[in-house]
């Protein structure tokens, strides 16, 4: 008796079951709870949220008082993405085009920070940027030290975010640079273009999918990060993520925190939609 073969489409779908179950339980269900909490009423008791349903949390989250925090969050995320691009592109280009046999070692060096806890690394930066930290003492040798160090400043927050998310920019840029046909650069030189013109007319368009992918991989988590602003910044460096954390902790306002989380998620979705389909081959 011949054995019945499982249809190919069914076998492929069965392979998706474990990942689908994981995403449903640990992504969709918590996300649905957050959306539900955002329409609930605040309760100071053990339940945190109660009926009736209301949009009060969204009205509060969209209050003009939160606009500076929202703008600061976007500014930090944008500057972090720009800093990672300026630092990451030369490194990715060097690894892809000039590293030779050291390419694997350099890629491993880019990934080394992931071997340590992100929280521990930010605490290390907190010690370095403190008034008695190494950075302030070294700058003091040339008279550039600062009273109290560089903590609780916008620069400290952007520095911490850039350090934390730089590998997310380097890796997609490396893939794009490795796929780039260098003969196009030589052809540009033969046609009389200089280095600057060649970069903007040939190189940058050729690696643009990697730029888009890396920028999104940095922009999205930087916009939602709350650990770095809390540890390296102060009240004046609060971001949307840190305010959400405050609402779920000391603020005891789960509906407001959930509403702000949903709004931040919608912002990320809009950014992804604006990106369109460009850069998908690098992602």
From TrEMBL:
UniProt KW Heme keyword: no
Membrane spanning residue stretches: 12-35, 74-96, 105-124, 156-177, 198-223, 254-274
Entry membrane topology: Multi-pass membrane protein
Keywords: Cell membrane, Membrane, Transmembrane, Transmembrane helix, Transport
Domain of life: Bacteria
Pfam family, one: BPD_transp_1
A single Gene Ontology CC term: plasma membrane
GO biological process assignments: transmembrane transport
Residues in ABC transmembrane type-1 domain copies: 70-275
CDD domains: TM_PBP2
Subcellular location field: Cell membrane
Family: Belongs to the binding-protein-dependent transport system permease family. CysTW subfamily.
Protein name: ABC transporter permease
Organism per entry: Longimycelium tulufanense
């Amino acid at each position: 008796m011949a054995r019945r073969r499982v249809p190919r489409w069914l076998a492929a779908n069965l392979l998706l079951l474990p990942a689908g179950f994981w995403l449903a339980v640990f992504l969709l269900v918590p996300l649905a709870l957050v959306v539900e909490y955002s329409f609930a009423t605040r309760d100071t008791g053990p339940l945190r949220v109660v009926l009736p349903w209301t949009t009060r949390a969204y009205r509060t989250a969209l209050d003009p008082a939160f606009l500076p925090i929202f703008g600061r969050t976007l500014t930090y995320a944008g500057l972090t993405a720009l800093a990672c691009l300026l630092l990451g592109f030369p490194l990715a280009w060097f690894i892809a085009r000039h590293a030779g046999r050291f390419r694997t070692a350099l890629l491993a060096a880019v990934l080394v920070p992931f071997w340590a806890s992100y929280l521990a690394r930010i605490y290390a930066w907190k010690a370095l940027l403190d008034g008695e930290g190494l950075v302030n003492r070294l700058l003091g040798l040339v008279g550039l030290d600062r009273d109290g160090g560089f903590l609780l400043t916008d620069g400290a927050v952007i520095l911490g975010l850039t350090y934390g998310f730089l590998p997310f920019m380097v890796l997609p840029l490396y893939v794009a640079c490795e796929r780039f046909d260098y003969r196009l650069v030589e052809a540009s030189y033969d046609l009389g273009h200089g280095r600057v013109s060649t970069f903007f007319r040939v190189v940058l368009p050729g690696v643009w999918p990697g730029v888009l992918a890396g920028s999104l991989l940095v922009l999205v988590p930087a916009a939602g990060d709350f650990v770095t602003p809390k540890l390296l910044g102060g009240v004046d460096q609060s971001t949307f993520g840190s305010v959400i954390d405050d609402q779920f902790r000391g603020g005891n306002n789960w509906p407001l925190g959930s509403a702000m989380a949903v709004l931040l998620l919608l912002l990320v979705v809009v950014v992804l939609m604006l990106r369109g389909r460009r850069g998908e081959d690098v992602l």
